[in-house]
Amino acid sequence: MILLILLAFLGLIAGVILAKYTKEELDEGKKYFILLEKLVLLLLIVLLLFKTGSNFFVTSIFFILGAISFPLVGRTYPILALAVLMASFFSNNYFGIIIALVFLYGLPIGTLLFKKFMKNKKRLFRELLTDAILFILPFSLVLISSTLIFYNSVILSFISGALFTKFIKK
Question: Under a CB-based contact definition with an 8 Å cutoff, are residues 75 and 12 in contact?
Fold first, then answer.
């Protein structure tokens, strides 16, 4: 399971490496990277909401709370880590799909990050390190996994709302 979680994050690193070797295509591909980011976010939102299994009212409340609180977090990777953690409580197929989508999300984000900080390698490294730490941090919640399982529909609704805010953000 740890290797799969690591694989999910490696999409970001793979995106940076991809961008490093295809610098001349970054400007032309920017719109496609953004499109891929939005498409993967939309798929994640739909798949996470599909597993809530809760009533519409509860899902809506926590979806809205997640959407409102995303700007406080400001970063997507802790939210994605929480989505991966919650997906690990479901079937292996569902978990694998979420891992694959998080990996795919990292590819365009990594390329856009490289393009943004191409001239400042230290800043690029800091951004990657920050995302790595924030991605690993939610997995400390495994210690209270029984509580997480009990509140899975609420947490999935919250995550979906936060990702929706990222989805609609330019």
Answer: no
Are the beta carbons of 162 and 28 closer than 8 angstroms? no
Q: Are 108 and 33 within 8 A, CB to CB?
A: yes
Instruction: Transcribe 27-84 into DSSP letters.
Output: HHHHHHHHHHHHHHHHHHHHHHHHTT-S-HHHHHHHHHHHHHHHHHH--SHHHHHHHH
What predicted TM-score, i.e. pTM, was given to this entire model? 0.89
Residue with tokens 């694959």: 100
pLDDT in tens, 74-97: 889 999 999 998 898 888 899 999
Q: Are 106 and 15 in contact (CB under 8 A)?
A: yes
C-beta separation of 110 from 11 below 8 A: yes
Where b means 16+ CB within 10 Å and e means fewer, 25-48 reads ebeebeeebeebbeebbebbbebb
Q: Are 109 and 12 in contact (CB under 8 A)?
A: yes
CA 80 from chain centre, in angstroms, equals 3
